[in-house]
TrEMBL record:
The lineage of its organism: Bacteria, Pseudomonadati, Pseudomonadota, Alphaproteobacteria, Sphingomonadales. The gene is rsmA. It is an enzyme of class 2 (transferase). It catalyses: adenosine(1518)/adenosine(1519) in 16S rRNA + 4 S-adenosyl-L-methionine = N(6)-dimethyladenosine(1518)/N(6)-dimethyladenosine(1519) in 16S rRNA + 4 S-adenosyl-L-homocysteine + 4 H(+). Its main location: cytoplasm. S-adenosyl-L-methionine binds at N25, L27, G52, E73, D99, N119. This is Ribosomal RNA small subunit methyltransferase A. InterPro entries: KsgA/Erm, rRNA_Ade_diMease-like_C, rRNA_Ade_Mease_Trfase_CS, rRNA_Ade_methylase_Trfase_N, rRNA_adenine_dimethylase, SAM-dependent_MTases_sf.
Length: 274
């Protein structure tokens, strides 16, 4: 196994001061990084997509586990440190310089299945998460998503109906996937420490409910939670046929979106998908 210099030394040698604009909060604790890399299970010989490797803390844990890593990083300053890491694990690391939001990940991974691991700034992470979970293609090419979020966002992703944190993200993450809170990460684990606590969410694709269009389900949740304080008979007015479909599924039109279970959203979407 390659003998690597401590991450703090790598950062100092390459002058990688954390950039606020790029949402950089680095992890240096190698034991913690190994535990994160182990969340998806055995990655030996598997393809992994890592978004935002930065100086390469999680990347080295993934390489140690035997994964074949494709890492997308938009901060040019990190590239020499990542190149060194690639030399320490010959043939295992491919670094792509660019914005992950602008790249076609399936194409990048050559159409082969891949696990996704990432510690990203909040806005980029949520945008990618919604993209990975959306679309009509199911099962997707990714085999699992293991992603760091602010703890509050992670809780919204795994939320159950009945509370104010249950919303669009929960339905999107749960209607054809299994989403779990895998690990809480204290803010002090990061350099510099962010203001809030973090947590890692692990998602695996589940069965696609038959006869349901993803586009319609997304449209329904957008309308229902876009006006979450209103009754469904009001908030769903803009979705053709949705108010009529409520009765067919046995949902009281006076209910509000946060009381509607994921299964009920799926039933509604099924009626509208024919
Ligand atoms: C929170 S840091 C994490 C760095 C490292 N993975 C770690 O855990 O220590 C996020 C990284 O994502 C990169 N990044 C931010 N937005 C990105 C984007 N749209 N595409 C690719 N990388 C991005 C940043 O430059 C930074 O290196």
């Amino acid at each position: 196994m390659a003998d690597l210099p401590p991450l703090r030394e790598v950062i100092a040698r390459h002058g990688l001061s954390a950039s606020k604009a790029l949402g950089q909060n680095f992890l240096f604790d190698e034991q913690l990084l190994d535990r994160i890399a182990a969340i998806p299970g055995d990655l030996s010989g598997k393809q992994v997509l890592e978004v935002g490797p930065g100086p390469g803390g999680l990347t080295r844990a993934l390489l140690r586990s035997g994964a074949r890593v494709t890492a997308i990083e938009m901060d040019k300053r990190c590239l020499p440190a990542l190149a060194e890491l690639g030399e320490a694990f010959p043939g295992q690391l491919r670094v792509i310089e660019g914005d992950a939001l602008r790249l076609d990940h399936a194409e990048l991974m050559g159409g082969e299945p891949f696990a996704v691991l990432s510690n990203l700034p909040y806005n980029v992470g949520t945008a990618l998460f919604v993209r990975w979970l959306g679309g009509e293609r199911w099962p997707p090419l990714w085999t699992s998503l293991t992603l760091m979020f602010q703890q509050e966002v992670a809780q919204r992703i795994v939320a159950r109906p009945g509370g104010s944190i249950y919303g669009r993200l929960a339905v999107l993450a749960q209607w054809r996937s299994d989403a779990k809170l895998a690990m809480k990460v204290h803010r002090s684990a990061f350099t510099p420490p962010p203001k809030v606590m973090s947590a890692i969410v692990h998602v695996e694709p589940g069965a696609m409910p038959e006869g349901v269009s993803a586009r319609i389900l997304e449209r329904l949740t957008e309308a229902a939670f876009g006006q979450r304080r209103k009754m469904l008979r009001q908030s769903l007015k803009g979705v053709s046929g949705a108010v009529e479909a409520l009765a067919k599924v046995g949902i009281d039109p006076q209910r509000r979106a946060e009381t509607v279970s994921v299964t009920e959203f799926v039933e509604l979407a099924r009626i509208l998908s024919v």
